[in-house]
Amino acid sequence: MYILRASRLVDGTGTGGAAGMIVVDKDLIVYAGPQQGFTGNTAGAEILDFGDATLMPGMIDAHVHTSFNGEPDYWDIVLKQTESFRTLTSLRNVQSDLAAGFTTLRVLGEKSHLDIALRNAINRGIVTGPRLVCAGQNITVSSGHADIWLVPDIKYEQGLGGVIVDGPDAVRRATRQQIKAGADLIKLLVTGGIMSEGSEPGLQHMSEEEMLVAVSEAHRIGKRVSAHAQGTRGIKSSVRNGIDSIEHGFYLDHEGATMMAGNGTFFVPTLAAGATMTSRTDQVPAYVVRKSLEAQRSAANAVRLALDAGARIVTGTDAGSPYNYHGDNAQELELLVKAGMSEAQVIAAATQVAAQCLGIEHQVGTLEPGKQADIICVKGDPLKDISACRRVSFVMKGGQVVVSGGRPLFRA
Which of 136, 208, 217, 320 is the most exposed place for a label (fewest CB within 10 A)? Predict the structure, then answer.
């Protein structure tokens, strides 16, 4: 049993800030509230008093890729690194996220289901890492985002950037294959993307008929569907066909934002992806720089449109994309504040709302009795200065202390 105390407690619902205490028994929270409010038995509990700091739920990054870590041209990694090597680097990367206070990650596309294998190893206690919610392989259409162009001399290996399908029957089969492999959700690549050569973000590649099949198959057995949808038309098509979350959404317009709010669709803007991708352009392919700069002109406005419409905004970094490093996930929170969200709204987006997006709000996302003890402590007051979320001194995941005094207690 642990008793955690600090001068501020933020519970993840967008409220809080007063001095508080959390009582943890094994892996669960049994109390979270005022320091004098708990009347249960705490005999033998270890007391951790953090003083002038803030206790809050473990944060959630709802869009990462585990086997990349900021390399400027990651297709080179896809083609040249072995699966075993990428699995080991994935462990290192997700542990960096955990040390930064992100106790849950949603992995949106990996080759050969390595994300699912890593999730299973973490869940079985073989290695230490954050909670992983995994999509397995992306599903794309021929010539779509993640259909990597190779010269005819090279034999194409299915699944380099995603499962390539054409037509409703093929989409149905691919969806069922991901579910069979253990995917927690399905990721569709609906529009073009910044990182794909010859694929423009504004173009919709996957037909409504194809995406509707995936949504029907996934929803029928309780799985959610995420859409890489950057262009306006693709965003609206995705929402209209029941997709649960829109990733990137750089070219969102007022109508699309209103549709998302009305349908309850989650929006994961991934502002960090564009901001980091153009922070250095010396090694990033020219087509990536061009498309990223164009997208950045609309991205912050997309957040404001979604906010005004009442759509549910979720933090996601697209960690792993060029110069977008694992462990620097809190930059997304700062960018969302710059785009017009309040600190309280952003904290909720990184905790409660993100947990709802992942469908695990009954487990994590807020500091409430009965939920998993995913708790972090940050130096400062994130309700006044969101950059405090970078200053993580303590991390507990499921009742296990994994970071203390700012130092990780685990090794890859």
Answer: 208
Number of neighbours of residue 362 by Cβ within 10 angstroms:
11
Q: Which residues of 336-349 are buried (b: 16+ CB within 10 A; e: fewer)?
A: bbebebebbbbbbb
pLDDT digit string, tens, across residues 89-119: 999 999 999 999 999 999 999 988 999 999 9
Q: What are phi and psi of 338, to 5 degrees?
A: -60, -30
Strands of 87-128, DSSP E: 102-107
User: What is the number of H-type helices and E-type strands within the chain?
Assistant: 12, 20
Burial zone of 36 (CB within 10 Å; 0-12 exposed, 13-18 middle, 19+ buried) = exposed
From 412, 411, 355, 406, select the one nearest 100 (Cα to Cα): 406
Do residues 328 and 75 touch, judged by C-beta distance below 8 A?
no
Q: Which residues contact 282 (CB under 8 A, 6 or more apart)?
A: 72
Distance CA 54, CA 376 (A): 8
Mean pLDDT computed over every residue of the chain? 93
- Tokens representing 376? 């972090």
Residue 161 phi, psi (nearest 5) = -120, -5
Q: Could you give the 3-state DSSP secondary structure of residue 206?
A: coil
